[in-house]
Amino acid sequence: MGRPRTNDEEVKERLVACATELLATGPQESVTVRAVAAAAGASTTAVYSLFGGKDALIGEVRDRAVLGLFRGLSAVPASGQPLADIHALAVAYRRWAVEHSHLYAVLFGGVQSFDPSGAVSAGDPVRPLLAAIDRGLAESVIEGERTSIALSVWVTLHGLVTLELAGALDAATAEATFRSTIDATLRGWTTPAVFRSLRRAEPAP
Predict the structure, then answer these.
(1) Phi/psi at 20 (nearest 5 deg)?
(2) Residues facing residue 190 across a β-bridge
(3) Phi, psi of 54 (to 5 degrees)
(4) Are 8 and 15 in contact (CB under 8 A)?
(5) What's residue 80's pLDDT?
(6) CB 82 within 8 A of CB 142
(7) Collapsing DSSP states into helix, strand and coil, what is residue 99?
(8) Measuring CA to CA, which of 5, 49, 128, 166 is 20 to 30 A from 75?
(9) What is the pLDDT of residue 118?
(10) Residue among 158, 13, 189 at smallest CA distance from 90
């Protein structure tokens, strides 16, 4: 009988999946080469031959999370209405987080840091949001400093999504709270003229 294969694509995907789950459900310090290999039914040698070590494996998980969220947000088409675009990006963000809860936990659970003053790379998930904010600023639909607006939207989104993923909100409450809170956040950044028009368009209580 030949030696078991330790470096094929199937083993690689199992290692990434198990590392993702371990990172999402426990502290990063507890994610060892031995623990990931055991969870994946592979040898520790496979981790080193496929990734070079634990740090590179964690980096692979982190890169997949970043890429997945970026692709999910980049798939949202731009329209002629910046506020609608930002709202659509918020919907896409929440959908991706719910559908990829472990990757989301890895992305914002301590493995990935967030530096609002840092440079935005081509594949940064915040890029589509910044582009929509820029359109809103250029068209005088919203006003303020773009980084502050982006942080406001993201912090609101992250708080809502985190509570939903933790099971703190039932489905109906999560849906209603998401829509009302995102709408209120966006209204807060609109120019006075747009704000008044939005308030007039709201249905009477």
Answers:
(1) -60, -45
(2) 142
(3) -65, -45
(4) no
(5) 86
(6) yes
(7) helix
(8) 166
(9) 54
(10) 158
User: Could you say which DSSP state residue 52 is in?
Assistant: S
pTM value is: 0.83
What is the arithmetic mean of pLDDT over 88-106?
Answer: 93
What does each C-alpha distance from 78 to 50, 69, 74, 75, 81 come to in angstroms? 39, 17, 9, 9, 8
Token pair 């709408």: residue? 183
The type of residue at 120 is V
Q: For the chain, first and last CA: distance in Å?
A: 75
Are 136 and 84 contacting, i.e. CB atoms less than 8 angstroms apart? no
The pLDDT tens digits for 116-162 are 555 666 778 889 999 999 999 999 999 999 999 999 999 999 999 99
Phi/psi of residue 190, nearest 5 degrees = -75, 160
Give the whole-angstrom CA distance, residue 192 versus residue 139.
Answer: 13
Distance of CA 165 to the CA centre of its chain: 13
φ and ψ at residue 142, rounded to 5 degrees:
-125, 165
- The three-class DSSP label of residue 190 is strand
58-80 in b/e burial notation, b at 16+ Cβ within 10 A?
bebbbebbbebbbebbeebeeee
Taking a C-beta distance cutoff of 8 angstroms, is the pair 24, 105 a contact? yes
